[in-house]
Design a protein that fits this description.
This protein is mostly helical. It has helices spanning 12-26, 34-41, 46-74, 76-93, 100-115, 117-128, 134-159, 165-184, 193-199, 217-233, 239-247, 252-276, 282-298, 306-334, 340-369, 371-389. It has 16 helices and no strands. Helix 3 runs antiparallel to helix 4.
């Protein structure tokens, strides 16, 4: 039996979007190497390079809710095309400037334009598929992202041997290619917004979703509940590499190998795993994913070498594979169809906030209180998320 056969129910447009994402992500190399470009190629200080990267994060944070609302106004597919085309143009222009203040301005513009893609793409997927197929659609979308990310940064490392500007040009050309593909391929996607709007009316007929999503208690509760688990996952990019090198005295390349373990598991297992769990209720998936993330990182407190760390990576990767598609599917189910982009924008903003808080807090705890405090703390954070997420339900209010 083919464990991937469940993807066959997805409409053609979901596959087209996912292929565009694959093309775009296969060229993702400018941001991962931005700090090296600014310090090694242009001679700026590490503090200045860090400021540019921080500015990108700020741009991503403020863009998410705005672009989400804009997606509802002009349509997600139109915003996706604009995002890809203008991102490509900005990246082609980026290496032509050497002024630091202009670099900061372009970096902020880059963040605003490129990050507009995320909430619009999530909203589009939710529009294109029926609720029972959303988990499969979001899994395919994540597969495209991870396949691309397994190519882009690795290819960028080799392209650096030729020149730094070429990584921006390749990144820009892949963005343009993805955008042009969506422009020229006929798009006939059918939206389910109208039927969902009728189906999503409250069962008792007494309440309607609030016009302002910031007054939607169910949304706010979910976002708050998910933040601790999100912050844990981002330790894999912040405190974990520092812990491996400084505390366990492993070589830097070991982190790259463990990153590959994470990526390969996602590529090989995430699709069949989520298809097998597609009938599970939201709260079970979300709580299990958050708990596994917490357990996986907490187990690092007892790790002593490569193989024990690799085992922890396997555990929290399974949590990640369950948690992230589940959060996107839950958001799609609770968002009013006519404001789905706005909801996805707030969801994406929560990701950015969790990354900023998680990266800072994890490194601070590791530096001030040691590895045991940090990793055991991740268990309690994961358990907190799991307990709170156990209360969510897509069809009833809290």
């Amino acid at each position: 039996m083919n464990p991937w056969r469940g993807l066959g129910v997805l409409p053609r447009e979901v596959w087209i979007l996912s292929f565009a994402v694959l093309i775009n992500r296969s060229g993702t190399m400018a941001r991962p190497f931005l700090v090296l470009y600014l310090t090694k190629a242009l001679g700026y200080s590490a503090e200045q390079a860090g400021l540019a990267l921080t500015l990108y994060g700020v741009g991503a944070l403020i863009t998410a809710p705005v672009s989400g609302k804009l997606s509802d106004v002009i349509g997600p597919i139109r915003l996706i095309k604009l995002s890809l085309i203008f991102t490509g143009l900005i990246l082609l222009f980026f290496p032509l400037t050497k002024s630091f203040f202009l670099i900061l301005a372009i970096t902020l513009s880059w963040a605003i334009v490129s990050e507009a893609f995320r909430p619009a793409s999530l909203a589009l997927i939710a529009d294109l598929v029926l609720p029972e197929h959303r988990k499969a659609a979001f899994v395919l979308y994540r597969l495209a992202i991870n396949l691309g990310m397994s190519i882009g940064p690795a290819a960028g490392g080799y392209l650096l041997l030729i020149s730094y500007p070429i990584i921006f040009w390749v990144d820009g050309l892949t963005s343009l290619a993805a955008g042009l593909m969506l422009i020229f391929i006929p798009w006939h996607g059918a939206s389910h917004k109208h039927s969902e709007a009728i189906a999503s009316l409250p069962i008792d007929g007494t309440t309607t979703p609030p016009q302002n999503p910031l007054r939607d208690k169910r949304l706010l509760y979910f976002l708050v509940a998910a933040i601790p688990a999100m912050m844990i996952v981002f330790q894999g990019e912040s405190s974990m590499p520092l812990f491996l090198v400084r505390d366990l005295h492993l070589e830097e390349h070991v982190y790259g190998i463990l990153f590959t373990v994470n990526t390969v598991l996602i590529i090989m297992i995430e699709v069949p795993l989520n298809l097998a769990m597609s009938k599970w209720p939201h709260r079970s998936l979300l709580a299990l994913g958050a708990l596994l993330v917490g357990i996986g990182f907490a187990a690092m407190a007892w790790a002593s070498g490569f193989w024990s760390v690799a085992l922890t990576v396997v555990i929290w990767t399974f949590g990640e594979m369950i948690f992230f598609p589940g959060t996107a599917a839950y958001m799609a189910d609770i968002a009013p169809p006519e404001r789905r982009g706005e909801y996805m924008g707030l969801f994406q903003m929560t990701f950015s906030l969790a990354f900023a808080l998680g990266a800072w807090l994890g490194v601070a705890l590791l530096d001030q209180f040691g590895a045991s405090t940090l990793w055991i703390g991740t268990f309690f954070a994961g358990a907190l998320s799991a307990a709170m997420l156990w209360r969510v339900d897509a069809k009833t209010s809290l």
